[in-house]
Every structure is written in C-alpha cells, then in structure tokens.
Amino acid sequence: MPVNQTLAQFSDWSYFTAFAFYLLAFMVAIAFYARRASAAELGKNSAERELVSVGAGAVAAGSESSTVASASDSGVVIDGKSAADAKVEKHLSLAHKLGTTAEMLIYVGVAVHFASVLLRGLATQRFPWGNLYEYVSVSLLFSMVVAAGVLHRESMRVFWPWLLAPVLALMFYGGKNLYVEAAPVVPALQSIWIPIHVTIIASGASIALVSGVSSILYLLRMAQPVGKEKGVLGKVVLPLPSAQTLDSIAYRTAIWAFPLFGLGIVLGAIWAEAAWGRYWGWDPKETVSFISWIIYALYLHARATSGWRNSKAAWINIVGFSTMVFNLFFINMVVSGLHSYAGLN
C-alpha cells in the first residue's frame, strides 16, 4: 500500500514536538524538585533547632536565659508562624505551581505523542510498530500513560524528573539513531498477530520501566533514610517519599508487568508456530525475553519472601529491567536472529 507522506511528515513533527514538551516538563520538574528539596531541608533544620531549643530549655528550666535562647532559636513569629515556617510554606507554594505546570506539560506531551503514533499508523495503514523506532515510540508512550495514572497524586510528583530522564534519553536515541521512513513492513510482519503480540509486550515493558526506576529510587532512599539524609546524595533524595512507598510502587507495577510480559511471550510463540512452524526455537530474542520473565518471577517471589524484602529484591528487579533493555537494543541491533527484521531494516 502507498504511504501517505503528508501524514508521515506530521507524525515525525508530532514525535519531536512531544519530545520538546517532555523536555520542557523535565526542566520544570527539576525546578519543582529543587523547591521541594529546599522546603524539606528548611523543615528539617527547623525541627533540629526546635529539638536543640527544647534540650536547652530542659537543662536550664525556669531560668530567664533559657527562655531568651529558646525564643532566639525558634525565630521571629509573625501571625503565629515562625520565619522558618513561612519560608517552608513559600517554597511549597511555588513548588505546587511548578509541579502543576510540569504535569500539564506532560499531559500535552502524551497527547502529542499519541498523535504521532496514530498518524504513523494512518500514514502506513498498519499498526505502527513494525520496526525498532516505532516500537520504542509506542513503548515510551505506554510508559508515560502508565506513569500519569500512577503518579497523579501531588506527593508522587517528585518521581517525574527521575522517570522523564530515561524517557527523554530513549526518545532522543530513537529519533536520531533508530528512525526509519514510514513504509510498509516486511511480509513476516504482515500478520494479525503483530498488534496483539507487540502491544502486550510493549505494555509489559513500559510498566517495567516505572517499576525499575522505582527500585533504583528505593535503593537510594534506603541509603539515605527519611530524616537521616547526609551529604550531597542526602540533599538529592530529600524530597523522595519513604523507602516503603517507593518499594510499594515498584512491587505493584511489577505485578502488572510480569503477567503481561509472560502473555506476550506465549502469544509470540503461537505466532512463531504460524509463521515458522514451531512454537519455540531458542532464538536470541526469545531466549533473553524468557530470561527476563524468569528474573521478574524471582523478584516477585523474593519480594514476598521474609528476609528478602529489602535491597536484595530491588536489585533483582533492576537486573530484570536491564535484561529488557539489553534485549531491546543489543539483541535487536547486534545479534543475528529471526527477529533481526525488527531492528533498523
């Protein structure tokens, strides 16, 4: 079928426009994150001063000097609030505005990103994931949609800079190094199974991205517990929620990624039987996909096992996602196999 070059051009423009919106949202999200960090640091310092003040008052209880010291430590009081509390509220107010702006930019970016995928499909009159460029675009779109649903609460907005960073990196790499002109797919991909198999696999991989980032942040938070942050790393993770919250996000998203990815593998095997006459042939992509699925099974088992609900399980989750990334790029682009047509050709 002939390709509608006009729609294909609009699809390309939409892709890079979505990237621009995500990039702008990333910069605003960093500003939001910095304000939340400043507010958290001010609140932490204020609490420490109050503890020192209470301790000083206990040592010199009843003395006039302790009263003066306490008043000095607590700061000037205006309308019932100390100067430190007023600063914290000011930072939080600005952070709220920045967070709302970043979220709106993300929603617009997701809408434009969806338009890019839709226009690509209309231009080629097929499901738009017949090559690696299209697969990366669709997977990242799914990741952003999932993240928008999981991170809609204000307390979760601190997650956005960490998630947008790999999304932007992958979009940039996909648009620069993986891009191919809109065109019909090879005969092997002209099957009803491609929208079913690839959609489910991409959905599982996109959710795994959210889970993997959550586990990385969980490890950072475990190294810097709430209220005990120290050094430069402590200031970086200061706005993050508790390790328990981050671990919960990683676990709950992995629960969805695991069966979706497994179902995608099963459906791929059914498609392989129809296309190649066998369900399984230990093709490199099949093999690494199966290894990834096994690792996620180990993660869920470890996460539910007493004694493993700590950094050990999180590391397994990160290894599982790393094998997915390895499969996406190295296996598709370097290793020769039956799935090689899904690469740059």
Percentage of residues in helical conformation: over 70%
The low-confidence parts are 58-80, 341-345
Strand content: under 5%
Secondary structure tally: strands: 2
User: What gap, in angstroms, lies between the N and C termini?
Assistant: 18 Å
Major β-sheet profile: 2 strands, antiparallel
What global shape is seen? Answer: flat
Please state the structural category: mainly alpha
User: What's the gyration radius in Å?
Assistant: 25 Å
Spatial strand sequence of the major β-sheet:
1-2
Tally of individual helices = 10
The whole-number mean of residue pLDDT values reads 83
Order of helices and strands: HHEEHHHHHHHH
How would you describe this protein?
About 75% of the residues lie in helices and about 0% in strands. A two-stranded antiparallel ribbon has the order 1-2. The protein has 10 helices and 2 strands, in the order H-H-E-E-H-H-H-H-H-H-H-H. The two termini are about 20 Å apart.
Task: Record the SSE blueprint.
Blueprint: H1 5-59, H2 64-74, E1 77-78, E2 81-82, H3 83-124, H4 132-150, H5 160-177, H6 193-223, H7 231-237, H8 243-276, H9 284-303, H10 311-333
Antiparallel strand pairs: 1-2
Helix pairs in contact: 1-2, 1-3, 1-5, 3-4, 4-5, 4-6, 6-8, 6-10, 8-9, 9-10
Quick synopsis:
The chain contains 10 helices and 2 strands. The protein has 345 residues and is mostly helical. Helix 4 (132-150) runs antiparallel to helix 5 (160-177), helix 4 (132-150) packs across helix 6 (193-223) and helix 9 (284-303) runs antiparallel to helix 10.
